[in-house]
Amino acid sequence: MSVDLSTTYLGLKLRNPLVIAASPLSTQLYSLQRLEEAGASAAVMASVFQEQIDSEGLPPHPPAPAESCLATELINYREMYDYNAGPDACLRHLEIAKRTLSIPIIASLNGTTPGKWLAMAKSMQEAGADALELNIYFMPTKPQQTSEMVEASYLDLVAAVRATISIPLAVKIGPFFSSLPNMAQRLIEAGADGLVLFNRFLQPDIDMDALEVTPNLVLSSRDELRLPLRWIAILREQVQASLAATSGIHFAEDALKLVLAGADVAMIASALIRNGPGHLSVMLREMSWWLEHKHFASIEQIKGSLSQHRCPNPGAFERANYMRAVTSLSTEGA
């Protein structure tokens, strides 16, 4: 039996649920071509950051610390240009990728507040992007910043981007809201066609020798899958939008679990950085084998079948799961 792995995300018909997440994997055309050949159904481009666009006109090389209090910020800007070559180069890369590849290309913007930089969203649409992923990375650090203010800033930003473009819009957020279902619904009302769960919010570290705060990029582990899996299962029947999961997706089993919970796509980066593009082919073969073994004809047939609304034990996604896990641990330790 031949199984159908196709799915729909943001109104785009995809050949399977495996999408390349926004990451360095998307910065080179050769890498994108290899990933397409291995079976990737779409690719999210590396993000262009609000700071990169706001800093246009600044000197390409930062001054010495004694010359300007902006030295640290300028160093950060230069490092971002090393990551993705800057806004203009990203637009050219997007245009070339669209001409070269047959899979949908999703542009990515990373920002926190509305401003002139949002014109980049329209430029990405004009460059050929099939959709846009808005990655909102906002860290409230002051007591005066209330939860209402934070949520309003998210909604204002989504509404501003929605007013700028006509292509589908996905919003990538973190899990740190008092009521995620409420916020998810409001984001959709503000103009989001889909939600990407979740932004990992990479945490800083401290260098004990230099006594400096340093960035710390750690590739995801499979344990991180559980957070997006839980919330996708909860949201699936409550929101009318596409749902994408990212973080912790390393094997076919991980992607299938997310689809069972209700995800339309699984976005992958860390597993491919570790194992190379060929790992996608392995995942797709194993997904097909599992569906055939379980006598399912398609991905759509299983999508959301274990969401909270449809699973035999809805409480497993709430406190009952916590109590059961703690009890199990106590029993094992006895």
Overview of this protein structure:
The protein has helices spanning 29-38, 50-54, 71-84, 87-100, 119-126, 147-164, 180-190, 226-235, 252-261, 270-275, 278-293, 299-302, 319-333; strands at 7-9, 12-14, 18-20, 42-44, 48-49, 105-111, 131-136, 169-173, 194-197, 205-207, 212-214, 242-246, 265-268. By secondary structure, the protein is α/β, with parallel strands linked by helices. The chain has 2 domains: 7-302, Aldolase class I (TIM Barrel, Alpha-Beta Barrel); 304-334, no CATH class. The chain has an 8-stranded parallel beta barrel, surrounded by 7 helices. Strands 1-2 form a two-stranded antiparallel sheet. The longest helix is centred in the middle third of the chain and has 18 residues, at 147-164. The radius of gyration is 21 Å and the shape is globular.
Please give a handful of descriptors for the protein shown.
alpha/beta, two-stranded antiparallel ribbon, 334 residues, eight-stranded parallel beta barrel, 2 domains, TIM Barrel
Secondary-structure topology with pairs:
Layout: E1 7-9, E2 12-14, E3 18-20, H1 29-38, E4 42-44, E5 48-49, H2 50-54, H3 71-84, H4 87-100, E6 105-111, H5 119-126, E7 131-136, H6 147-164, E8 169-173, H7 180-190, E9 194-197, E10 205-207, E11 212-214, H8 226-235, E12 242-246, H9 252-261, E13 265-268, H10 270-275, H11 278-293, H12 299-302, H13 319-333
Parallel strand pairs: 3-4, 3-13, 4-6, 5-6, 6-7, 7-8, 8-9, 9-12, 12-13
Antiparallel strand pairs: 1-2, 10-11
